[in-house]
Amino acid sequence: MKWWTDIRRKVLVEQVSKRKVMAEYSIHAKTLEKILSNPEPPGYRMSRPRPKPVVGPFLGRIEEILKQDRELPRKQRHTAKRIFDRLKEEGYSGGYTQIKEAVRELKGRLKEVYIPLSHRPGEAQMDFGYALVKENGVLRKVAFFVMSLPYSDAVYVQVYEKICTEVFWDGHVRAFRFFGGVPCRISYDNEKVMVAQVLQNHERKLTNGFLQLQSHYLFKEHFCNVARGNEKGVVESMVRYTRSNFMVPVPEVRSLEELNRELEERCRDELSRTLRGKGRTKGQLLEEERSCFIDLPDAPFDACRIRSTTASSLSLVRFDRNDYSVPVRFAHYQMVIKGYINRVEVCRGDECIASHPRLWSQEGVHFDPVHYLALLERKPGGFDHARPLEDWKLPSCFRDLRRRLEAELAGEGTREYIKVLRLLEKHSPKELARAVEHALRCGASSRDAIAQFLVPRMEWRYTRFSLDGHEHLRHVQVACVDVAEYNRLLGQEVGA
Fold first, then answer.
1. Which InterPro entries has this protein been placed in (predicted)?
2. With DSSP H G I counted as helix, E B as strand and the rest as coil, what are the percentages for the chain, rounded to 5?
3. From CA 469, how far away is CA 472, in angstroms rounded?
4. Contact (Cβ atoms closer than 8 angstroms) between residue 269 and residue 229
5. CA atoms of 127 and 188, how far apart (whole Å)
6. CB 111: neighbour CB atoms within 10 A?
7. Which of 133, 96, 164 is nearest to 247 (CA)?
8. Model pTM greater than 0.85?
9. What's the DSSP call for residue 422?
10. How far apart are CA 418 and CA 402, in angstroms?
11. CATH-assigned architecture of domain 123-292
């Protein structure tokens, strides 16, 4: 570069003759003209592209294959090797390297170009992702819900067992509560929990579940074109960001609810970060953005899926391919099941007659042993073989009570023991266990005796005498009692 600069300065500034410079530096006249025309060496430039007589006739075919691949899943697209094999069958006689270079060049030219978008306050984007979680030592895959506000860059994340309607509802309810309002417009992809059918002209047939949520919160929806996740690129990147930053290393928790509390705290910490290019924190921008939100309704959306069913002869109702027990007196009755993300409630009229933890497997059964005690009281012979009681763990005092009852009452001991267990219909296991232990110490074992120990009693020191409602008794004077009078009475009785 130095000699290039020296030649230019000698000719253009010092007015040294070109002939003398060519002789001094041993360069050709054309080379000198190139140096004088360019401030720096321009490098090698071809006047026209090199001909490609072997691969050239097949470039159009390669481009056609690559364009067709854009409509296919990423894992099922052509590699350069597969294109080479196909072209050999079509008459290509060259080597693999030329095909590989042609594929790389054409893929670069065919890459899509995107328009930078502006994000107005009050708009949101929502998506689902998947991650690994170790729950109680078991590694498994879970879904996670992400809602992002592109204007303030605030984000809300929660994990769930799987993607379904009630999960979709619950994520929105929690996100709206976290953001302090409802975004006026939310962008989605075409997940089946939201879109029942993709129609022509960008129209969608929406699911009833989506319409119920929208009717409650009154936000506008926007659906991306099929396979065009870039149209909601902010939340797409947030799915990757939260997975990499919130779930690496793999979270080890006792329950998903515990992980959700941690994730919500992480989302809250994110609000203190200063947003690049805006000079303010995410929390400050979110506070400003709330003026564009729709106010939260007085009552949150009840995020449960409702199904009508009839209890079977086994006092079981089915929801989402799993069975749940109800009290035997409701067998063969029609009832309503409410499926939340963490529990299943069975209702008859306005009364909740059973509540169970939600099962996320398939063909599972969750029994409440108390539901079957009324039937077992009539059929005590089935007590030791009743499936609902197989895994029922009770304190050791119940085992002692049963042995005593069966020893004292012979054939009726099991029935009396079941009557004691039926006290669990109104009292907690802890309260009943305490009453049973008290009864065993006192030598009592019947159901009626144990029930007496469940009646709440206040200690005398906490009681207070009150004349409220008996104002006329305030004028009664009671003389002080002389205890010695009692001894005199005893003496009179002895003398008599």
1. Integrase_cat-core, IstA-like_C
2. 45, 20, 35
3. 9
4. no
5. 7
6. 8
7. 133
8. no
9. G
10. 9
11. 2-Layer Sandwich (3.30)
Give CA 329 to chain center in angstroms: 36
Cα 406 from Cα 417, distance rounded (Å): 8
- From first to last of its 496 residues, the chain has per-residue pLDDT tens of 788 888 888 888 888 888 988 888 888 998 888 888 888 887 777 778 788 888 989 999 999 999 898 888 888 999 999 999 999 999 999 999 999 999 998 888 887 776 666 778 999 999 999 999 999 999 999 999 999 999 999 999 999 999 999 999 999 999 999 999 999 999 998 889 999 998 887 788 999 999 999 999 999 999 987 766 667 788 999 999 999 999 999 999 999 999 999 999 999 999 999 988 778 899 999 999 999 999 999 999 999 999 999 999 999 999 999 999 999 999 999 999 999 999 999 999 889 999 999 999 889 999 999 999 999 999 999 999 999 999 899 999 999 999 999 988 878 999 999 999 999 999 999 999 999 999 999 888 889 989 988 887 656 555 666 677 777 777 777 778 777 777 777 776 555 5
* Stated length of the chain: 496
CA-CA distance, 354 to 362, in Å (whole number)? 20
